[in-house]
Write the structure tokens for this entry.
Amino acid sequence: MAEQGEIVFRAKGLTKVYRNGALEVHALRGIDFQARRGEFIVILGPSGSGKSTFLNIVGGLDTASSGEAWFEDHQLTASGEAALTRYRRDHVGFVFQFYNLVPSLTARENVQLVTEIARHPMSPDEALALVGLADRASHFPAQLSGGEQQRVAIARAIAKNPEVLLCDEPTGALDSATGIKVLEALTQVNRAVGATTLVITHNAAIRDIADRVIRFADGRIVEETVNAVKKQPSEVSW
Amino acid sequence: MISPLRRKVLRDLVRLWAQVLAIALVLAAGVATLILGNGAYASLFETRARYYDENRFADVFADLTRAPGALLPEVEEIAGVLDAEARIVKLGLLDLPGMVEPGSVLFVSLPEADGGLNRLYLRLGRLPDPQSAREVVVSDGFAAAHGLGPGDSLPVLMGGQRRSLVITGVALSPEYIYALGPGQMMPDPRRFGIVWAPRDSLAAAYDLEGAFSNLVLKLAPGADAERVIEKLDRLTAPYGGRGANGRADQMSHAFLDAELRQLSAMARVLPPIFLLVAAMLVNMTLSRLITLEREQIGLLKAIGYSSRDVALHYIEFVLLIAVCGIAIGFLAGAWLGSGLAQMYARFFTFPYLVFSRDPQLYLVAALVTLAAAVAGALSAVRAVVRLPPAVAMAPPAPLAYRQRLGWLKAVLALPQTGFMVLRHLLRWPIRTASSTLGIAMSVAILVASLWSFGSIDRMIDVTFFRSERHDAQIVFGTPEPMGALHSARTLPGVLVAEPFRQVAVRISHRQLTKTLALMGRPEAPRLSRVLDPDLRPMAMPEAGVILSEALAEALQVRAGDLVEIEVLDGARPRVTLPVSGLSLGYVGLGATMEIGALNRLLDEGAMVSGVSLMLDPAAAPAFYAAAKAAPKTELVSVTSLMLTRFRETLAENITVMITVYVVLAGIIAVGVVYNFSRIALSEQGRELASLRVLGFTTREVAGVLFGELATVVLLAQPLGWAIGYGLSVAMVSAFSTDLYRVPFVIGREVFATASLVVCAAALLSALAIRGRINNLDMIEVLKTRE
């Protein structure tokens, strides 16, 4: 199924240079990349390898120094601030290592935050049910465990029915058992919504649940593996 | 070598400069108003005291018609009288060639050469030769208004006689610091001046050889003024004594007193407001700083700094803010002080101004300000001291929010961002409340200053357009038979003429007594009317007297009560009359009765003291000339000129005052809103950046923060209106004297304007942080734990 989808992401010669005074840091040194609709891609690589920078550019949070990045017919690298905001709002769901929930809103309200502004959202309760938190909807983030908070974040990310789901170290702050629950939620959502999913991780154990694995090092893609057989999250451990 | 902690204080100050400045400005406003209010009070008080003392300002003042010189020794013998001086004080008319409109001068005989009372301060030239019949000294303001100086001639009408006087000098007197002409509402040096002339020349002009018309007394220290006045009145009664006054009822002194009262009210009310708001701001800002630096505090403690060291570090930070505020406040206070001194110079004529730069005042202002700042810091710092280092180094426990707004959610149908706003405001109730109170204070300051516009309009409307509707008034030197009314009708341009009779009386009720002019008017006056509190014209009662509300209050009488009236002129009859009604009046104390009844009471026949006139405006100059030339005329007053002067003077002062108050209120509003927003942004920056990541636009994200601000600003409005209303009511009663009472008129536009100004200030400070919202770092926020 993964190989048959149309191409939704294209990047060509993507570079990113941070300038700090006289110092130049090359975070990305020419990335060529493609992803198909519904594909589940795991991105591996050590710290500073450029994988977050890549995800941020693809997610419309950052701009590239040169090269092109396209989402469907949107050229992200040519978009301004407003267009990128629009892109994130309409197409992208984000999941982050530190959840980034709004502490003054309950789980359901955190999801509603997104459904209120999305074009074709699912109901907040449906999204929470997808991540197995239907019964925790009225809790504030401070009343939820780390794994639960991360699942709220996933529910929030998918509630808009995004075409793209971008996850930066979604299990980074979680223990193994909780992390697996979060991964299950992600894979389930990937299937249910059909969103192209990019997951950044340090954790090589996660590679087995992906359609494709990309390894970053020193601002370049150094390895690309297609998994012939995907494992279920419950089959991996770390 | 600066210690690292101290270096941190300085760097924090630089880093947080905008917030620091906002707080420092509020503190500065407190310092400035403290210094200005108390300093100006002290300046005015000391200047007056020194001037009075050096120029031997009298303690008791008495007008009479004509008393023989032999009465003076008797007066001097009254127990408690240190010194007495018999003077001639008479009104005359100005006859300057270039001046069309009527003006008057008050002739005052020169104080005795040695030991005299109310001695002159000669600013220019020399005193007149005592033997000269033409030489005079004129008051400073008058000379300046006409460009007159020593050597110039001064054409006047004295008792109907045209005379040309010669000015030998320009002088000031403690008796006329506030020189208000008869019938005027504001000093107008162009149309009223004091002319001091040798006694003999005045005696000759006014037919008072060997006699006098005015007495001034200096009392021995500790003498009972009331008793002296009582005895003096008994002595002067046969000579037309119109009742002596102590200093409290002397016009110039009383106006100065009113100004002093206003200053002391300002000095009591404003500084505490600013210091309170500043303390709240210090508390808010420091609490947030300490929360942000929680881990650093833990680290400092862990490496061996004591709780005291750390607490002092933050106190030092606050003290430095206070020092900035004090420095700005000193400068602003001194600057505003010199501005106020200039305003005094325009209103009050002093030979000098003792500008009080009492170091003690500055010291007190500095200490009070430091104390307010430290008081604001204490509760925030206490939290630091209590934290054990291990706890401090760990991140703070997540904030507990409560799910208690379900019902509100149903009612308001707020978006989730609206709930963020509400819950955040409720999560920090003290901060929300103190910010609301702070902004309310700035609204209140504005309400309490802006209401004066409406009140003055009301005063003008009632006084000049409903009550005193005449275009001009002629006052005769002595009462004239009714024929004078008919002559007045024949003057050029006169359309309607209406007589009035006035006589000095003492009105008493129980032990309360007031001396004033009792007016007699036609039964249903058309020009010079008396209005009831509902602004309906009152008919003059056949028997009985109408008292102004101020007088009724002073005498504690109500309609229907009986008052005793003692006429201080002629045969000095005494009667007891019922109070038939109370009238509205903002200027002075008033008592009115029907002119026929008054004439019967006086038993001098049908007499008039003057006429109120309606004029054809085209013929005004011809009227002025003819009225001035009429031999019986003592005074011509022109309503439009009076009104213009009244408006100009008030407009000038009120513009200055309102500007100052708007700036002060703006400082508070900006200070509170800016700090509140910066703190809210600092606390919620992470959430707001997350919203941006989720696809919220900068406008939507700013809306969350501004929603919080807007809620606080809106909540503050009604509170500010209420506090402002309270302050205004207090000011009205503080400012009301026998000289004038201020009508309390506060329309919706006052509240609206106050709110607009404050909302504009809030908007400006909100815009100042808009840039920070636009630049929220979305990537940074994803990488870090809160």
